[in-house]
Amino acid sequence: MKEEMKQQDRDFHRALECKMQEQKDLLEKGHKEKAEKQHQLEKLIQERSHQEGIRQLEAKMVQEAKEKQQELERALDSKLHEQEKLMAKGFTEKEAAMKEEIQSLREKEETSARRRKSSLVT
């Protein structure tokens, strides 16, 4: 009977060790799964952060392109306005020059007409 109890005791201890090993294996498996999930979560967070950084960079580039376009449009408008002023001024100057030329021609014509008159009178 003692032998039988010893055998039962050994069987109990083996079963207990086996059960403890199973628990240990399950615990290790759980830790590995948890670590893997944590790693996947960190990777996902890092990827989303990277994508957000790219999105922000793209938005910044679009905004800078818009600002550059607006700056170019303002510069072009300014140059066109300046060109209009210069053209108007140029025409004004040409008009003044033409008036002077017309006046000079009239004076020459009057002088010529007086000479003809005076040559006819004498």
UniProtKB/TrEMBL annotation:
Domain Guanylate-binding protein/Atlastin C-terminal: 36-105
InterPro entries per UniProt: Guanylate-bd/ATL_C, Guanylate-bd_C_sf
Pfam family of the protein (one): GBP_C
Entry-linked SUPFAM superfamilies: Interferon-induced guanylate-binding protein 1 (GBP1), C-terminal domain (SSF48340)
Disordered as annotated region, ranges: 90-122
Biased composition (Basic and acidic residues): 90-113
Domain of life from the UniProt record: Eukaryota
Any GO molecular function: GTP binding
Entry protein name: Guanylate-binding protein/Atlastin C-terminal domain-containing protein
Organism: Coregonus suidteri
